[in-house]
Design a protein that fits this description.
Layout lengths: L4 H13 L3 E6 L6 E5 L2 E3 L1 H27 L6 H27 L1
Antiparallel strand pairs: 1-2, 2-3
The chain binds zinc ion.
Zinc ion binds next to helix 2.
């Protein structure tokens, strides 16, 4: 896997700006330069990709759950209230994920 320009722009540039040090080593998994920050050596690209995959999966399953709930609304008022509470929680979570993504 090689780095896309978008990944370089979104990962490497902000890291350099935040004071991380680019090392003379390369990641054995993706070939990106390794970085060091606060004594921690890491591959920013692998971490970024992992985070993205993870986020997308959770979001997708939450969205599916939400659709399922929305298409199966109960007639009973008490049940409906519970149902809507769960939907609200899922929507809040989705909003949180969206914000996280915007913040990078
Ligand atoms: Zn890597």
């Amino acid at each position: 896997m090689s780095l896309s320009e978008k990944e370089i722009r979104e990962i490497i540039t902000p890291l350099l700006l935040s004071g991380a040090k680019m090392l003379d080593k390369h990641c054995p998994r993706c070939g990106a330069p390794m970085f060091e920050m606060n004594g921690r050596v890491f591959c920013p690209v692998c971490e970024y990709r992992k985070k993205q995959e993870h986020g997308v999966d959770i979001e997708k399953s939450l969205e599916e759950k939400l659709k399922e709930l929305a298409s199966n609304l109960p007639n009973n008022l008490d049940e409906l209230e519970k149902h809507l509470n769960v939907m609200e929680k899922i929507i809040n979570l989705l909003e949180k994920y969206k914000k996280l993504k915007l913040e990078g």
